[in-house]
Specification:
Strand content: under 5%
Distance between the termini: 84 Å
Helix content: 55-70%
Structural class: mainly alpha
Number of strands: 4
Largest sheet: 2 strands, antiparallel
Order of helices and strands: EEHHHHHEEHHHHHHHH
Shape: globular
Length: 362
């Protein structure tokens, strides 16, 4: 092997100042070199988006959301089938055209064609989806809350008030959770969706004045402002309370009585259809005079004679048409309400079975 060459000493640097040369060690020379910083990295901002899929999936599987969606789907499917009966019923209730079902049907066909039977159905679908969803979800929620409160109240000793020889026992057992839930459902859904009801009635009764949804909204707002969209709200709530309470109370009672008599836990689809129709028939018959007065108040401005309140509307109807006038359009209403109630309950229970099936199994 050739011998390794000895390492050469590092050379020093020389600095010249005029006629003099100065020897600078290499180490000092390197320290005097400008210090170079590493090139900065580009500035970056990173946002970490949380994964909400699990939370959203869990939320959509809750009982309340399932009941809300079931109500919306049931309402949409029912109204799509029964829109012609709704159109005929509205015309007869407010006193437009013929006084019987067949005559109203023929008039609509002659004046507007077959599409006239679905007049206002677009807004009706927009109205019924949130209305049914809010109504049925509110009903289920309030019913569960009231039932739970009654059970807790019964477990403890009821508060008592003694006035002399009189003992007053404060108990919740006399309150029907179903009736209270039905009333709450009617009020909440009415407050939320009343403007859509007003627009739907205008489109149905006067299509020549309100040919489209956008024109109806613009004209109603221009004529009366936001308040016009809530025309007849008070009589609507007054008329809604007896109907909604009776409707849900009757369906629940009929369902429980029938299941007890047949010794079964649940109804099949045809039984839901029949019992729902009977509940709707009973509730509509009891509250129909208030429904007639409510409709007259809502569309009275179109005919130039709008009663100041519901009592005045009822008095005007009795004076002009007699007591029978309070039930004008009752037949058409029953033809609409009975299948609507039955089909709605049938679809609602069916969609609940589908959407809440996984929750029931867990």
């Amino acid at each position: 092997m050739p011998p390794k060459s000895p390492s050469l000493p590092q050379k020093n640097s020389y600095r010249v100042f005029g006629n003099m040369a100065l020897v600078v060690p290499k180490e000092l020379d390197e320290l005097e070199k400008p210090f170079s910083l590493p090139s900065p990295k580009p500035f970056e901002i990173r946002f970490q988006v949380p994964d909400l899929r699990v939370a959203v999936r869990g939320f959509l599987r809750t009982r309340e959301v399932g009941e809300f969606l079931s109500g919306a789907l049931a309402g949409a499917m029912t109204k799509a089938v029964l829109a012609p009966l709704e159109t005929i019923r509205t015309r007869m209730v407010v006193g437009v055209g013929s006084k019987n079902i067949t005559g109203s049907f023929v008039e609509i066909i002659e004046q507007q064609g077959w599409q006239g039977l679905w007049a206002g159905n677009g807004i009706n679908m927009i109205r019924i989806i949130p209305t049914q969803a809010i109504e049925l979800a509110t009903y289920e929620c309030v019913k569960r809350t009231m039932t739970s409160a009654q059970e807790k109240w019964d477990k403890i000793e009821n508060p008592k008030l003694q006035i002399g020889c009189l003992n007053v026992n404060f108990s919740l057992s006399w309150i029907s959770p179903t009736a209270v839930a039905g009333a709450a459902a009617g009020i909440v859904s009415t407050l939320a969706c009343h403007p859509l009801e007003v627009i739907k009635d205008r489109l149905t009764v006067s299509p020549e004045i309100y040919p489209s949804l956008s024109i109806a909204i613009t004209k109603i707002y221009k004529d009366g402002g936001v308040g016009a969209l809530y025309a007849g709200l008070s009589p609507t709530i007054v008329g809604m309370l007896p109907y909604s309470s009776c409707y849900y109370f009757m369906y629940d009672k009929l369902k429980k009585s029938y299941c007890q008599s047949k010794k079964k836990n649940s109804l099949n689809r045809p039984e839901m259809l029949v019992l729902g129709a009977l509940a709707g028939f009973t509730a509509s018959t009891i509250s129909f005079p208030l429904e007639v007065a409510r409709k007259r108040l809502m569309v009275g401005a179109l005919q130039g004679k709008c009663p100041p309140n519901m009592i005045a509307a009822l008095a005007d109807i009795i004076r002009d048409e007699g007591v029978k006038g309070l039930y004008r359009g009752w037949g058409a209403s029953c033809l609409k309400v009975m299948p609507s109630s039955g089909i709605t309950w049938m679809f609602y229970e069916a969609w609940k079975d589908i959407l809440l099936a996984e929750r029931r199994m867990s």
